[in-house]
Structures are given as C-alpha cells and as structure tokens.
C-alpha cells in the first residue's frame, strides 16, 4: 500500500494518526516523518510548519466528513429526510472514522487560537462546515418542516459538538434522538 501512496499522502495519513493519538502539541515532526517513512526535510518541503501540516490534515479530514455527510443529500428536497440522513451519516462517520473524531474532539479548544494564521484557517474551515449544516437546518425551518423556534447555528453547534460526549453507539443514538426531538418540538411532527 505504501508504494501506491504519494509521499505527501503518506505524510498526511501519518500526521492524522499521530495527531489523533497525541494531539497537535504532543507529536513532533520527527515522529511524523518516522511514521510516514520519509525524511523530516521532506515534510518541510510540503509543509513549512507543523501548523501548516495540521491544517492540511484538518482540511483533509473535514472534507472527508463533509463529503460523507452531505453527498447523499445534495439532491434531497424534503428537508426532514435530508436532516435525518445528515444526522445518520454524521453518526456513521464519527463511529467509523475514529481518528478524525479524536482530532476534532482534541483540537476543538484550539479553534479560538489567534497566534498563527494556520489556526485561523483551521477555525475558518470548521466554521464553513458548521455554516453548511446550519444552512440545511435553516432551509428546513424556512420550509416549516421543523420548529420555528430552532436557532440553526445553535443546532449546528449541538450536532458538531454533542456527539463528542460518547463513543457508545447506543449513547450516540440517544443523542441523535434528543437532537431530533428538539428540531421538531412544536412543529407538528
């Protein structure tokens, strides 16, 4: 498998694994190079800093999450069905992509960092995902398919953050049900 992946791809995958295991601050570029089977200088050829590498891992991970969650719903016009699919896809993704879930959970606190341009880009990418989710919720609200009292931004925050409480499938299903009921309270559903 290693021969089929580009060096850049191997670096990103090794970094994702390392960041998931020990967080951004807990891993060195030397460790990532060793895991990827490349020289540390090659990492710096592709990524000028650890923050730039982390941003690339984050971007790659969020793209994968976004594609998984929204790809099957892009043509869906019934907003209730669309939201159900989004929630189920999100749970499916975070249970099957444990590394990405760990990175998101561990680094959520760093999203407020202002000390580095890469961290601002990490936050902006997360906010773009949240906005896409909020927009789907707002569409359902505008179509009067969910409660008029739902704040789309808060609901999107709850979805992105609420599932980090547990990894237990039953617990995740309970959280999904709580979110679902909140979306439909006072809506006739």
From TrEMBL:
Name of the protein: Transcriptional regulator
**Swiss-Prot/TrEMBL keywords:** Coiled coil, DNA-binding, Transcription, Transcription regulation
What SUPFAM superfamilies does the entry give?
Homeodomain-like, Tetracyclin repressor-like, C-terminal domain
Please list the GO terms describing molecular function.
Answer: DNA-binding transcription factor activity; transcription cis-regulatory region binding
- HTH tetR-type domain location, by residue? 5-65
**Native species of this protein?**
Mesotoga prima MesG1.Ag.4.2
Task: Read off the PANTHER family from this record.
Answer: HTH-TYPE TRANSCRIPTIONAL REGULATOR PKSA (PTHR30055:SF226), HTH-TYPE TRANSCRIPTIONAL REGULATOR RUTR (PTHR30055)
What highest taxon heads this organism's lineage?
Answer: Bacteria
Specify the DNA-binding region ranges.
Answer: 28-47
Q: Which residues form a coiled coil?
A: 97-146
Record carries keyword Hydrolase: no
